[in-house]
Amino acid sequence: MASSVLRAYAQGVSDVSPRTGGPGSAADAALATAALDLNLLRTFLAVYRAGSLTAAAQSLGIAQPTVTAQVRTLESQVGEPLFGRRPRGVEPTARAHELAGHVAAPLDALASLGSRDAALAGHEPPVRLGGPAELLSTRVLPALAPLVSQGVRLVIAPGLANDLVEDLRAGRHDLVIATHRPPGRAFVTQPLAHEDYVLVAAPAWHRVIAHLLPDDPCVAVRDVPLVAYAPELPIIRRYWRTAFGKRSTARAAVTVPDLRGVVSAVTAGAGYSVLPRYLCQVELDAGDLVLLHDVDPAPGNTVHLVQRTGVAAPHVERVAARLLEVGPGW
Questions:
Q1: Smallest Cα–Cα separation from 47: which of 38, 39, 55?
Q2: Cα–Cα distance between 285 and 115 in angstroms, integer?
Q3: Residue 172 in contact with residue 274, Cβ under 8 Å?
Q4: Domains located in the chain, CATH noted
Q5: Looking at per-residue confidence, does 244 or 37 come out higher?
Q6: Count H helices, E strands: the chain?
Q7: Which of 156, 170, 210, 214, CA to CA, is 20 to 30 A from 144?
Q8: Strand-pair category, 127-131 with 154-158
């Protein structure tokens, strides 16, 4: 196996030789034998995947100046820049994408040769995954449990979509579950799951306003306290705009930056809210919450799986594939 991996590596090196001369030229031969050594390529691939010199240095266990020097050496040997510097992190060039496409698989295979149980030994860095706390806790972690038992390591970071996407851009995450599609060509974004939203309250509040609901749910809840997870009311306003064709003018009586807390407060009788159905289905089935409005199709939102453009590490790809497999069933 080692010989086949090395042959693939050599082929990859010859395929990404400097642009001076054609295939088989003296420049190609020199590059294949001396210029692109394994250490430089390993460092390049770490920077490419991390999107950051600092993060790559941490994953490799070496100093950042060493990473910078090795990248510069490789750029000199390749004859072109491989990364554009940004205020936070680095951006791979087209040449870097090409190089990564050729050498990633051989390097990953070489890394796995040290032990048949290399993954279980923790040789591959953990997959850094960000997303909404509620979705991570109730859907994502249970879905990824089988991978953990197979040696995949995870570092989970809950947060808001905009912050997580910027951290992804800067190389601090490998994957992000975002509640909107981020703009730009720096990311590969795929639909992961669709959230249906429901307008709910505890049975006590439903009994108070039940006679008003058939005529106008907006008027019915006007004097009921609103429980929301953000002062901007993004879910409530989306529901109002989609279901009623108008803008919500409500103000939150209770703000909880965790939708699980919103479920608890509404179930306890604090007021009404709009929630993802998956998060409150148990309470609805038990009668602890009551639908105040039902519409088909239900207002909702598509959540996306986002990663940086390029060739990802094997465990990152396994996590992404698993999420895309099970996400539509959420």
A1: 55
A2: 50
A3: no
A4: 2-114 (1.10.10.10), 127-193+302-329 (3.40.190.10), 194-300 (3.40.190.10)
A5: 244
A6: 15, 11
A7: 170
A8: parallel
Q: Are 199 and 250 in contact (CB under 8 A)?
A: no
Q: Is the pTM of this model over 0.85?
A: no
Between CA 96 and CA 192 the distance in angstroms is 28
Annotate 143-159 with b (16+ C-beta within 10 A) or e (fewer): bbeebeeebbebebbeb
Instruction: Report strand pairing: 226-228 vs 252-255.
Output: parallel
Return contacts of 239-242, CB within 8 angstroms, 24+ apart: 239/197, 239/199, 239/274, 239/299, 242/299
Alpha-carbon separation of residue 116 from 110, 151, 278 (angstroms): 12, 12, 40
| 249-266 confidence digits (pLDDT tens) | 999 999 999 999 999 999
Measured CA to CA, the distance from residue 51 to residue 158 in angstroms comes to 20
